[in-house]
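User: Last request for today: this protein with NAP, please.
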Amino acid sequence: MIILDGKKLKQEILDELKEEVSNLLIKPKLVVIQVGDDPASDVYVKQKGKMAEYIGYNFEHIKLPSDILEEELLTLIDKLNDDKEVSGILVQMPLPSQINAKTVQNRVIASKDVDGLTDINTGKLVHNNDTLISCTPMGIVDLLKEYNISIKGKHVVIVGRSDLVGKPLINLFLNNDATVTVCHSKTNNLESITKLADILVVAIGNKEFVKADMVKDNAVVIDVGINRDNNKLYGDVDFSNVSKKSSYITPVPGGVGPMTVAELAKNVLKAYKINRH
Ligand code: NAP
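Assistant: Here's the final one, the structure of the complex with NAP:
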């Protein structure tokens, strides 16, 4: 069994970007908008700021009160869309209930949508056109490629169909010539399907849900889950047992999580290039 080391690949990606950015006279700028005081969001925004500082991006963290109106947030995004200094805009989820997350995400101009979540960018992904792609799915595919794990012709089973992870992954794997099955909470006989996977991706948010008897021998297992329990992080996969029968597996932490940050870093530079043309 080989552990897919997302932390190591992230560092390599950041170092490459840092080198490229050091040669730019005008630096790319990432703006992260956070609404309210969700503690997990605080951690994620901090990680993004650290990444930006390391590479040499300009970074702005706009923190807004939780009672802000949707209209005010949309006006702010319009301003950032028009600001030539800004390369990428990211609205940290979750948003408070008075705000429609989809409306807000779609207000970000597609060329600055470093999260790859606007309808325009997800549509381009469906049509396999080059675009800004959602960071976690892209990180998974890049990690597989780094370890020369072929995707073409493989049966990929994705458990979870969120807009953030599962849905973009379907298209990304299809675009890489995989045969894709997607499962969710209403799927019958889940384990009869997960057992067929050459590559099993689990993104459900349920601590150690996938047990060894749900996985085929020598499968590649990608664990997207981040579940906090007593200040410790757990994946959606029972790592200690599943790792014994898999050929490759991602750890939690240290697998998909760092790759998500690395892909965001790549998207900021990509957006910068798109916006300067
Ligand atoms: P989400 O929006 O809550 O979606 C969860 C998906 O899992 C839904 O499609 C749901 O099905 C499905 N699901 C839930 N329980 C299931 C079960 N028992 N059997 C089969 N399917 C089930 O979650 P998300 O945003 O995709 O995130 C999933 C996990 O990944 C979370 O732990 C999150 O923290 C983590 N995550 C990690 C990263 C990273 O960088 N590593 C990035 C994003 C998310 P329905 O659609 O039927 O409800």
